[in-house]
Amino acid sequence: MSLRGKVLGSYRLLLRACQNLCRDDLVALNRARAAIKEEYNKHGTVENEQEIEEWVGRAVDAEKYVETSCGTGRSCQ
Q1: Is 71 left (phi over 0), alpha (psi -120 to 50) or beta?
Q2: What single DSSP character describes residue 75?
Q3: For the chain, domain boundaries
């Protein structure tokens, strides 16, 4: 898979995890989506492939954490 595809895939993973986590709270869902978008836009100028791979790995780790720690998306407090 291309690097661009990996970045887009990690973005989608995080959005899906947030959708599962915040499915009953539209305000929280919109805030989470905005925060994810902001982070990806903030790092959109990074050109170093190794650094991009690290960010993709962090995104995948964050998605796994949300899915495993919060279960099926119920309250994670």
Answers
A1: left
A2: -
A3: 3-69
